Amino acid sequence: MYRMNFYESTCLRCDQTVYQVDRVGPLKDFTFFHSGCFKCAVCGTKLTLKTYYNNQHRQEDKEVYCSGHVPKIGPGHLDGSAVGIRSALNVPKTTNLINDQIRSQNGTAAVVAPPQLDYQYGRFDASALHIAHALRATEIHRAYDKPREKPIEYYLDKDEQTRLEMKHRKEEDDLYRKFTRQREEEDKRIKDEIRDEWEKELERLTSRFEREMTAKRKRPEDTKVLTLRLQQERDDLEKNMTIRRDRKKESLTRKLLEHERAATAALVEKQSREMLELINEKRSAYMMAESIYLEPPGQEDMTAPYPSQAPSPAPPALAKYHIYSHPNEFAYIDEIAISVAQEDQKTFTDLVRQLVGRCGSDIEKARTIFRWITVKNLNTMQFDENLRGDTPMGLLRGIKQGTESYHVLFKRLCSYAGLHCVVIKGYSKSAGYQPGVSFEDNRFRNSWNAVYVAGAWRFVQCNWGARHLVNAKEVPKAGAKLAKTDSLRYEYDDHYFLTDPREFIYEFFPLQSEWQLLKTPITLQEFEELPFVRSLFFRYGLYFPDSHTKAVMFTDATGAATIRIAMPSNMQSSLIFHYNLKFYDTDGDSYDGVSLKRFVMQSVLGNIVSFRVHAPSSGAFLLDIFANAVTPKEYLTGEPMKFKSVCKFKIACEDLQTVMVPLPDCASGEWGPTKATRLFGLIPITHQDALIFAGRELEIQFRMSRQLTDFMATLHKNGIEEKRLSKYVSHLISGDDSVTFTLTFPEEGQYGLDIYTREHGGNGSSEKHLLTHCCKYLINSSKRN
């Protein structure tokens, strides 16, 4: 069977050889590109495997396009010259019956003309099967390209909206006063209880002291001892009563806060409904007389208007990437949110109108609210103790008092923008959670939002989306006010905006199954069994190729378990993985003085990275897998790289029948030659796999796709010093593009081979780069091989 040589393929764009280190592909049509050539054929926009499109009209067209320039599948053009139409136009129109070859209804053939008619003709419109398919394809291609609606100012007067807000604020003021009264009453009740207990206990102590003093005549020194003991017991009693009071207050505060949050959420629910009713009433009245769109939409753009009533939960028809493929598409909208966040507003009406005034779609409105909350960084905001509701910061008093969450605030702001939004309660795999933990109590209860945009309910998690603010020059000191001109970068996690349900379910489980927004909802047990992944896992486009991959992986009789992660081909040249293994319950990371990392073999083959764990003992282990996307140039600088967790697994070894020895003490990281190809363009000729079975001698040969120098190789074996093995490995550079490593093994067993190299200095410089670890092999040497 012919096997395509993926190491040496031709770039479709420039017709030059493309090596794996700089390769994109194979695409669906088995074409390859250089990463620099993988651009839209029309506008030159750089593409990824998630954002490129092919010409669906012409199979011979192998070029790639962006979403804006791909030849679209439109509804077609039908006129008198179209096939089947020419003769139909010449036939007398004696009936309006439908051709059953064009259209069917409810799965049955349409009614045809009576037998006495000599001819039947078809009626072509947007419901014809082949045309409806084309219209749907066009709709997907331009899912975000909807007609832009007029701002709310066109149909709802600001003063009228503000009057409703003032009515709501009065209701809030009454509710907060009620909260204050309840807290004061409960605080007084606790103080009275503690005071009564204190007086009774103090009376008991004093009575006992007086009895002891009068029981018999005491010497002065005895009286002094009793007095000191009484004072000590009194101090201890006061200390214990203070602790009991504080504990009671803490317990009561938690209960009151839970009650206040529920009451606030119920009030916001009512007020949001009233605000939406006002907006929809004015919007509908305006639409009766005027078009709601800024530009008159064409016939093909006449989609259903935003619903006045909240639709029932259902899975979205379009995925997130159909709406937008990169956060940069919202750059203008994000700038609006960042700018508005620099100022303080006195009313929600002012705030939301500043946010959404230039937004023409429901998606843009939701986006700017989401970004305002993430930019505002509410977790670190400082509030005055006496905060009035009619002050700018008074808008967020609920955040200060803990009665209002990010999710309730997002829902409130959405209602002012005319968007349907719900707060969903359930479980989340949040901070402190570990794979294998069951959701048996309230430790991991959480809340999040679903907002109705782009014709469907879509998830938003503002709290997890908000990260931190970084000054491009320096981080501001605590309490310092940021100038508007400061160069700021507001970090946030875009994964939690309009997250696809199939990804969201890995971290969040709603109490109501319909709010999973999945075609086939899962159970809580299935949720617990899903691998524990983080947002970075999806940002890198990672996925699990094996359906049996679970949060808890059980080892076989030899203590082995393998986890495989697949990555998109466009990430193969830049994505680097690392791992950490420790005991599940104790956090210990060594066994008999040997690092647990040496019981994991990480290797990369194609687009699959594998982690094969060999448990050194029975018990449970925690495998944490990290990743970072870096260019070869960044890697070769030698600067420390920051890796972030993408997933975690519990490795359970219940029965170990074979004792495993640790791997040779080589450099950390992946095994195999893939790293050498990715970083140095060093292509393996003789050995493509990480594991080699050899006799007493071995040759490993590479071809250099660019000039390298100063190779170095070190051999490792458990129980033998590295220096003793140095004479058993050598290398030879042949010509300009070949290097061969020759090994002889002094005895049978398992060896590890580390290979180091460096590049020539660029631009004619004689300066040499540092020797950098290139790759490593695991070699089993035996006479039988």
TrEMBL record:
It comes from the Eukaryota. GO terms for cellular component: cytoplasm. Belongs to the transglutaminase-like superfamily. This is LIM zinc-binding domain-containing protein. It is found in: Cytoplasm. GO terms for molecular function: metal ion binding. Signal peptide: none annotated. Keywords: Cytoplasm, LIM domain, Metal-binding, Zinc. Residues 9-76 form the LIM zinc-binding domain. PROSITE patterns: LIM_DOMAIN_1, LIM_DOMAIN_2. Its main location: cytoplasm. It holds the Pfam family Ig-like_KY. InterPro entries: Ig-like_KY, Papain-like_cys_pep_sf, Transglut-like_Superfamily_Mod, Transglutaminase-like, Znf_LIM.
